[in-house]
Fold this protein.
Amino acid sequence: MTALLSVKNLSFVKKPKSRWFKKSKGFTLHPLDFELNSGETLGILGLNGSGKSLLGKLLVGAEKPTSGEIYLNGQKLLGDNIKQRCLNIRMIFQHSNESLNPGLTASAILEEPLILNTGMSPIERQNKIEKTLKLVGLLSEHRFFYRHMLSDGQRQRLAIAKALILDPQILVADEPFAALDPSVRSQTINLIMKLQQDLGLGFIFISHNIGLVRHISDRALILQDGKVIETGKAEAIFSWPKALYTQKLVNSHHSLINPKSN
Amino acid sequence: MYLNRAYQILIMCIVLTLSACGKISSVNINDAGIIYCSEGNPTSFNPQLDTSGTTSDASSHQIYDRLLNFDPLTGKIIPALASSWLVSSDGLTYTFQLRRQVKFHSTDYFQPTRNFNADDVMFSINRWRLPNHPFHHVSGGKYPYFTSLELNQKIDKIERINGYRVELTLKSPDSSFLANLATDFAVILSKEYANQLVQQDNLQAIDNYPIGTGPFKYINYKKDRYIRYAKHSDYWRHDSAVEKLIFDVTPSSSLRLAKLITGECDAIAYPSQSELNVVREREDLTLDEKPGLNVGFWAFNTSKPPFDNPKVRRALSLAIDKNALLETVYFESATSAKGLLPDSSWAHQVDLIDTSYNPVMARKLLIESGISDGFSMDIWAMPVERAYNPNARKMAILIQRYLSEIGISANIVSYEWSTFRQRLTEGAHDSVLIGWNADNGDPDNFYRPLLTCAAIESGTNRAMWCNPEYDNLVNQAVLYSDTKDRISFYHAANSVIAEQVPLVPIAHAFRYRAHRSELKGLVINPFGAIRFGDVTK
Amino acid sequence: MRRIDFYEDDLYPSPLKHTWQEFQKSHIAVLGMWILAFFIVLIVVGPFVMPFDPLLQNPNAVLLSPSWEGSGSLQYILGTDSLGRDLLSRLVYGCRMTLGISLLLVMIAMMLGVALGATAGMAKGVRSSILNHLLDSLMAIPTLLIAIVIVAILGVGLVNSMWAIALALVPQFVHNTREFVRNEMNKEYILASKLDGARKLHLFFYCILPNMFELLVVQCTMALSIAILDISALGFLGLGAQPPSPELGAMLSEALKVAYKAPWSIALPGLAIFLMVLSINIVGDGLRAALRNRLTQ
Amino acid sequence: MILRTLIRNTNLLISTLLILSLFSFVLAFLFPGDPLENLSGLTNLSEQEYERVFLAYGFDQSYVTQFWIYLNKLFEGDWGLSFASGIPLWQELSLALPASIELSIYSLFVSLMIGIPLGFWAGFKYHKPADYSLLAISVVSYSLPIFWLALILILIFSLSLGWLPLSGRVSLLFDIPEVSGFMFVDIFNSEIDNKNAAYISALKHLIMPTLSLTIITAAIIFRLTRRSFIDVMSSQYIKTAYTRGLSHTQVILRHGVRNTLLPILPLFAMQSAVLLTNAMIVEFVYSWPGVGNWLIQAISQRDYPAIRAGMLAVSSLVIVVTIMTDVSAKLINPALVGENHAEN
Amino acid sequence: MALLDIRNLTLEIEGTSGWMKALDKINLTIEEGEIRALVGESGSGKSLIVQAIAGTIPENWVITADRLTWKGQDLLSMSANERRKVMREEIAVVFQNPVLSLDPSATLGEQLIESIPRSLVDGKWFWQRAAQRKEIAIKLLHKVGIRDHDSYLNSYPNQIADDISQKFLIACALVSSPKILIADDPTRGMEISTKTQILKLFTKLNQTRQLSILFVSHDLLAISSMADSMTVLYCGQTVESGKMSQLRKRPLHPYTKALLDSAPSFRKDLPPRTPLATLEGSMPTLQHLPIGCRLGPRCPRAQKECVKVPENRRVQEHSYSCHFPLHRDKK
């Protein structure tokens, strides 16, 4: 069986540049491989500057890899074919607030990918929008709302709706919960897990929150400075971390949970 | 020395800090000089070269003297550099006895070593008379006043009898000859200065850095800004002139009046007719007014079609309502002109019939001459105010309106004054609103420069009109010294003009000059330029 | 006053409507808008209600003072000028001309400027920096200077001065659009649309333009007041509209010749320009404040 | 970092000046008439003379060479002659430009002295009557058409009250040689007897033009300052400064003022173009012998070399001022110096 | 005696539809040497409480309290000057987003040094005082764990990392040896290692200097390791307050429980990939406040009585405001 998504030898090099007396830092993402099956969640964990967001961008096509291939259902994804990619791999951004256009209503926001990527008629589009809104737990009245009229949780749901509206197979989420309040966060996590089950989505979850990654991922991938430190079953990694770096991360997480007296 | 500088800096700072404190009592330095707000830039400082009033104002009576002068009050010819003169009985030979002890200006570019004498007279007249004179071609080599009157042709010879006596012989008698020598244009230059310039190979300077015998000497000139003169302390006539004379070049009449009110000018040229009452009403200002020897007219360029057709010209003359123009442009400070001569001239023809406003007739004439669907033409309007036309642009706008009624669309064209005149002389215009200020009281001074063939060349015939019949009449007229004989010739000339319409006479305006009341001795000279030699404050 | 982000208004207006609500809170701004509306109505219906042709000269009624003064007549409410033309009609036509042309110019400049600015804002690398440099140098040249140069090439006249002013207005639009677009391009919602496969044209018209609308309106009011001032200044200096056309600046300079006899003929055109610019500026200020309020909420 | 800013901006300056001089070169071809005459200012030349000038300007060679020769001539100070006066343009400009600069500097100075304190005051009284009235006054004054304002000032102060002269820089009765072009300097260096009277006369001539410019410029500066101050005072670090126990005065003096002025300094530079435009109009109304008046005269006289040179001089001046202010604002603003991610 | 004692603090704000109670009968006490966590989601009014204590509430808002005392002195009746004196000498505040809290145009050194009050330096001449100030500043930096003081003192805020800025702000706050440090979400948006460092610093300061800390946050992960006690806010009301350990073990209020449950890390017993317990819906806005217990509409245990405002009940050191608390039904 071919994996839903398989990444082979993916790497990215940005050379340090020095032009006009201005230096820009370089960054290297060392070659990495992983696979993702449908219904499975891959957690990517790392600190700032570890390259985890870059990896997300490479997957959805916002950046072009230096080398390596990405296969979807065994079919190679081409770098310049945005359409092919966005029908299948969709991104959920960290700040739902910023990833939604403030000047458009919810229905216009949701309609945009449909206009760009499908040949649906306006009525079909409206039906699809309504369906998707319901799917993420919003009401069809919400389609007349602008971004600023929605609460945090509703915004995040709308962002998810925007990701789902093209019926993708894979969701890539870059820190989707970091800016949310705890209760809203729980709601959203539940929603995503439910959708994943219902629709059989592959889910790539990029975060620095060990607790969350551990809870929702099947497998995890630990990144440091562009290198894969450790990869494997999430449970195993966090219970028995092998790499020193992972141990450090897990320990600092534990020190937060447990009261100081302990 | 250092202390002095420090003190100045201190004063400067105090002045700067006090700036907001309103009116600061100023030290009165106003007595030291006179500021005259003139209306434009002179083209040079030699009135021989130019008939424009601006040039004459800036030089004729300030920097130079003539052999003879007009008495500004009576108009009689009085002695100037020539203390006396003798006319032979056949009217051909004139002998001038020159004044002694007349000193030329001493400036930083020229220091005279001798007084004025016959050589200077010979030089000055020969310059415009003889085409082979070394200075004849300097500054363009055109002497419009003299050539338009054909004076250069008329003089047979000029001889130096001795250092202070000169004899002039004409080819034919000319009753207006002495008057011409008294005009603004017949100024006396310095031969010695000319010699110096020849050595320096800088002939042009004679017209731009002038040396004369007049009450003021030239200090400097900034185009569009000012001309500075200083008192000529060895002036032969008197010692009453003020220390400084400044011409403040101010083309806008409203600005001139404003400056007069604030005291930035002591006297102004051409107060706008519309605002004369302002001057009349104020006690600190004085308005001088005199009927002027002038005519304002609308001349057609008869060398260009369709204006070469007298019918078209007549049509145009019928299309405008002169009375309306008089009212709105001159504010009734002028009389309607039927012919070239103003009422005050002895040759004025009382029974001359004025053209009337008749657009129907005008249209008919146009159709007769084959122009039924109109055409477009340019009206050139002077950018400056003149006594004979205080607001040519406004008049042009009015005429534009009248012309549109007979199907002619008119463009109004205007350039800076000296460019304007230059291009007029080239004949680039279709029609022009301009006029003529007499330089002397002789009717010849109207008829000859305005419409004779010779005047096309010299650039005063704005109609570019050459009519042998007319020329003949005008030439005949000056051969007689009896006014009755001459009048008949001029009346005949009038009918030629009325028939051919090379130009439409519009108005004879009054002459005005406004000055601050503390200024004494400024009189309007009906025959020419302003003179500040006798003015005191 | 500080507002706190979680206490949102009961009503949920669209961004545009929200700005409008904020705008209406300022009475002065609304007043300014009414004055502006009055001017706009005037320039539309003016020709139908004015008693005289602005070019009609009446030699019998030269320099009449306004009707409330001594020599005034009710026929000419605001008096006449030195050629006997009705000042009221001339003023109305003048406003029509000055404001109408300014509106036209601003529209042209806006379209040009936004197109260029959007291109510059979305372009990267050398092309964008060359464009930026060119724009910066263009912006540094004073309007009047551009006008003088154009007038020198093409000759004096209203149309030529319009070219000059339109040219001078464009850089402002380009600059602001460029900044805005460049700012927006870094935002996540643009990235999101890009990942949806949006092309640049779509990005600009579908995503950025709706958010830019108010900014453009504000920018237009600024440009409009500049255009009015510039057109009338050029008319005044004799470089723009030429007499007898009833352009306010040209009227003013014509009136200088009769400044003493008819001071109202200086006062009135100036006042008209001033009121137009003032109302536009007030509206612009109000809009800017409303926009700021909306964005900080 | 500083070096980088300097070099970048020097590059910018040089390339912009180059573009401007190219533009002025092209103008000579765009203007009506003979490009050679428009470049050199020499008219009515005899055939030999024309030939000589033709070669001197490299008109027998490619446009690039011509431009190169033109650039060289610009550097040598040979900007051609004026059609109208026949005087070298460089000489005319070196008198006209200082007159404009003098006027602009004085009014900028006064505007800053008025606008900045009032801006702070209004920002301090944010949403109070004092703020509202100052704001209203500022809207009114920057909506005034400058030429009308100047005329009204003349009507009031010159014609009705007779306090102030309405044209020129100093009474013409003072024969002050124009050397530097700056009136007070020239008076100081002149040899006339009555210098103090001349200072006073120059000052009286200065008041109204400065005032007309100031009314508009000060309003703009006031608004910039006020807005900036309000923004700064509502920022987090000002609140933090208060909770750090600093007194009101300390907070405003140490943090408020500096942060208010730093971001608006470059905006003042942007105003220099507006200021100069206004100054040019004011010059026309008050017959101030500056570059604006000079250019407007040049238009009416079809003096193309003068327009070409004036355009180049004025726009170069504005560019230099803008870039210099920009650079100095960057150099003294630590928030910009330290920026690692400067754009393009 | 409690350092800070707040009893029934109510804050009313005028909105478009009349006056709204942004804070409704808040109770909060902080003992000497205690670290108290103030927990609530955004919009619960945490920052308003901080503002009320610091005295930076806008003048047109109405603030009332039965008690708002600092060491027994009533803060509300103090004059502005006295209040500022207390703020300067005894209460220090640190805000979230350290970079915005620092003047971008002044070096860190300048800002730290100007915070040092005149009373701490006794030099006669200004250069002596300047030297003393610098010495104090360096000491302070060492205290907050910044060693490389020279380079940081001369840096501008935009040149340094978040955590260093926050440490600087803490150093500024510590200048006058305050009794209490109010930290308003100081670790918001920081990543885990940075967060740990700041939290460690707080703990250390609390232990070594007997510094009381009011730690305001929504981030349970940050709080639970260091706080002694916790007060939970919901929508402008205090819902529960008590010892940290007790609250974690046996929360009485349904909201507290939901909050704790939302962090999977606290629930070792929770199998991976199972739904988290949540409360339905979201926090109401100020215009739509429910009557009585504001959690009412979302509360799984809500009954009719919940339309009345629940009283504040106490069980030893543990107080709660709920009609139907958890774990208590059986009794």
About this structure: Confidence is low (pLDDT under 50) at residues 1-11 of chain C.
